[in-house]
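quick one, three chains, predict together pls
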Amino acid sequence: MLKWITLAPLVGAVINGLFGKRLGERLVGLVACGSVAVSAALAFAAFFTRLLPLPEGERRITEHFFTWIAVGNFRADFAYLLDPLSGVYVLFVTGVGLLIHVYATGYMHGDPGFYRFFAYLNLFMFMMLTLVLADNLLLLFVGWEGVGLCSYLLIGYYIRRQEAGDAAKKAFITNRVGDFGYMIGMFLAFTAFGTISFVAKEGLPSLLAQAAERPVEAFGAFGVLTGIALLLFVGATGKSAQIPLYVWLPDAMAGPTPVSALIHAATMVTAGVYLVVRCSAIFVKSPTAMFVVAVIGAVTAIFAATIGLAQNDIKKVLAYSTVSQLGYMFLACGVGAFTAAIFHVMTHAFFKALLFLGSGSVIHGMHEEQDMRRMGGLRKYMPITFATMAAGWLAICGIPVFSGFFSKDEILWRTWATTAVPWGKALWAVGAVTALLTAVYMTRLMVMTFWGRERFGHDDHGHGGHGGHGGHGHQAQPHESPPSMWMPLAVLAVLSFAGGFVGVPPALSSLVGVHAPNHFEHFLEPAVAHVAAAHGEAARVPTGVSVVYPTGQSFSGVPAEEHHDVGTERLFTVISVVVALLGIGLGWLLFTRQPVRPMPTLLENKYYVDEIYDGAIINPIEQGSRHILWQVVDVRIIDGVVNGVAQLFASLAGTLRLLQTGFARGYAAMILAGAIVVIGYFAWR
Amino acid sequence: MIPLSWYLALSAVLFTIGVVGVIIQRNVIAQFMCIELMLNAVNLTFVAFSRYLGNTTGQLFVFIVLAVAAAEAAVGLAIIICLFRNRETLNVDEADLLKL
Amino acid sequence: MQILFLLFAALAVVAAFNVILQRNPLYSAIGLIGTLISVAALFLTLAAPFIAAVQIIVYAGAIVVLFVFVIMLLNVRAEESRADEQKYLRWLAAPLFLALLAEVFLAVRYVGDAPPPLPAVRAADAPRQWLGSVETIGTDMFTTYVLPFEAVSVLILMAIIGAMLLAKRDPQFGRRRAPAEPAAAAGRAEEVGAGARR
C-alpha cells in the first residue's frame, strides 16, 4: 500500500505528460487532482488504520518494493518506512498538495502549457513522497534530486521568460552544491557504519541504531559522526535555503504561484529539516554539528527577516519569510527540539501555503500585478482572500490560538532552555528579535495590500507594462478569485487556525484545566533521538511506559529536560505574545500612515549577496573556464595533442615518402647499403 | 699455386665494381653491362671453387649461368628498346613513375 | 703462374673500372670485352678450358655483340650533360665500394688456400678425363645434370619469343592494343603504318 502513495501521482504525471495535450483542461485537472487525492486517501488510511493502532514504540511499517542495488556489502532498496515522522509528513504533503492542485486548476486556467504544468506537479509529488517514505539514504537522495529536478522544471515553467530560466538554473545549481555535501556525507556514513539504511537489514543494524551506540563526540572535535552530520547539513542548507545556499529561493518566485506555494513553502524546502530530524540519532552525538545547525538557523532567520522587510514584490516578501521560518526550524533542530521543528514544519506548511495562495489570488485579481506599491485597499474587492490571508498573517505572527503561535513559542522556549548547545540564551534573543521582525514585515505586507488608499491604476494613465509584472491597473477593477481558488484558501485558513491544537504543551493546556501531554510531541518522540538520553543521562518521571527507539535506546516518560518549572515556560509564552503584538503594532503604525515608505537600500538590495557571489565565485570561475580551461587546455593542449599526433604521422609519412624517389639507381644503392650491413654482421661473427 | 682466396678476392672486387657501376651509371645499357660484370665475377667464384673442391658442379653451373645471362640480356635489351621508343631517352632517371 | 694471374687480374679490374666510368656506352662495351677476355684467361689458369672457350664465344662473342647492336640501333650518343638529379650517389658510391670490399675481404680470410694437386694432363689411364675437360663436362651434363640442361633450353626459347614480341614494331599491333584512342590518332597511326609498309 505504501508504494501506491508514491506511485499514484507518478501515474498521473505519465498520463498528463503523454496525453495531456489531447485531453483538454478539465480532464487534465481531473487526472492530476485525482491522483493526488488517491495518494492522500491512501496516506490517511495508512496512517489512521495501520500506524496509529500500533502500540507506541512499535509504530513502524515497512514495505519492500524491489531490491535496487545489492552489491557486496552495499544495499539500497526501493523500500518504504512509515513511522511517526514520515507519517506526519505524508499527511500534510498529500493534504496540502491536494489543496494546491485544486487551486492550480483555477490559477493556471487558460495557460497553453496546462497539461505540462500538472505533469510536472504530479511528478513532484511522486518525488517528494519517495523522499519522505524512503527507508535509506540513497532512496531519499533519489527523491531529493527528483524534487530538485521538478523544482527546476516548474520554476522555469514560463519557458519564454529569460528570468524564469535563469532562476531555474540558479536553483538547480545551488542545490547541486548542497547535494555534493549530502553525497559525501552518505559515503562517509556507509564507510563508517556499513549501511545507509534506517531500518535493520540482513542482520546489520540500522545506521541510526549504530550511531546511537557511539559515544558523544566532544564539542569542537571533528569525529566521524560530526563529519557525517555536517555534510548532511550542507545538503540541507542547499535544499532548505539556509545561509550560504539560500540565494535561489527568492529568484524562484519567477515560477507560477502554486509552485511557490507547494514547493517553496510547504514541501520541498522542508526536506532538509526532514533529513536532519530523521538522522537526529547522528546529530545528537555531535554537539559541534548541533551548534552549527542552530547558529546557522538563527542567523538565517534574522538575516532573511531583515531583507524581507524591504521588499516590494509580494512574493519576494513571502520568499524571504520562508527562508526565515526555515531558519527557525533548523534552530529548533540545533537545540535538540526535533519534535518542535517538525511541528513548525507542519504549521508553516499550512499558513505559508495559505499566504502564497492568497498572494496568488491577489496577483490574479490584480491582473498579474505583483508590486505592493501599486496595491492598496483591496479589502473590499477581495473579501475572501483578505479574510483567509488574515488568518495566515495572524498565524505567522504567533498570535494565540493560531497554529503558528504554538509551534513558534515551543521553539523559542526550547531554545532558551536548551542543554544541548551553549549560548542558548543568545540564540533565544536572536529568535525573539526575528519574531518581532516577522510580525512587522507581515503586517507591512497586509497593510500595503489590503488597507489604505488604492494606489493602482487610477492615476497611472501613462504607465505601460513594467518589466514582466506590470499590469494595466485601470482597465478593470480587481476581482475576487473563482471558487476553485478560494476554497482551498478557506480550508487552509481553518488549518492555520486550528492546526496547532494537536501540539499544545502541558504548561498551557493545564491553564484551561486539561491535563494531557503534548500529543504531537508524544506521538513523534519514538522516532527522533533525544539529547539527554544520548548523553547517557538517566531518564526521569517514569510513567510506566517504556519506549524503545529505532535507535535501540529506551527511555521512559517525559524527557529529562522537562523537569523545568511550568512557570518559566508560561512566562516565556507571555513574552512571545508580547513580542508578536509589539511587532504588529509597530507595523501598523509605520505603514498605515505611509504605506510606501522607502526602506534602507542595503536591505532592499538583499545585502548585495548575489552580487558578492557573482564577483567572488561565479565570475572568476567563468573567466577561468573561458581563458584557461577552454582556450588553453582544450584548444591548445588537448586539441593540440590530438592534432599533433596526426600531424606527427603526416610528417613522418612525408619524410618516409622521400625514399620513394622513383629512381632505380637510388634503390640499388639502398639495397647495396642494406646488403653491406647484413654481410658486415656475419663478417664480424 | 695460387691460393683460393686470391680468386675470391678478385671476384669480390669485380662484383663490387659491377654493383657500384649500376649505381653510378645513368645510361641504362651501361647499367646492363655492369650487371653482366657482376655475373661474370660470380662465374669466376664458381669455377675457382669447382677447381679447388674437385667437383664439376661448379663449372656446370657456370654453363647454365652463361645461358641464362644470354637470355636475360636478350630480353632486357628488347625491353630497353621499347622504353626508348616511348621516351626517346636512355637516361634511367627519366623512368621515375614509381615516385610518390 | 702467379704472374699470369696477377696480370690478367689487373687487366680485368682496369677494364671493369673502364666499364663503369665511361660516358659513351660503346666505350663501356669495349671495357666489358676486356674484362670478359681477362676472366676467360683466368678460367684457363684454373684448368677449365671449356668454360673459357664458351665464355669467349657466348659472352664476348654474342652478348656483347648484341649490346653493340642495340647501341647502334638506338643511336646512342655520349651522355648529354644534363644535371644529375642524384648527385649524392656519386659521393655515396666510393664509401659503399670500400665497405663492401672490406667486408668481403674479412670473410675471405678464413678460406683455406692450398689447392689439391692437379692430375697430370696426360694421365696414362684416362687421357681426357680430368676435371674441366670437355669429355667430363659433357658426360656430367648429359647424365647428372640433364634436367637443368633441358630447362635452360626451354628458357632460351622463351627468351627468344619474348625478345621478338617486345621489340616488334608493328602498326597493326599498336592499333589493336589501343582501341580507345580517338579516331584522329588512329588515323595517324594508320598513315604511319601504311608509310612503313610502303
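The CA atoms of residues 444 and 587 of chain A lie 6 Å apart.
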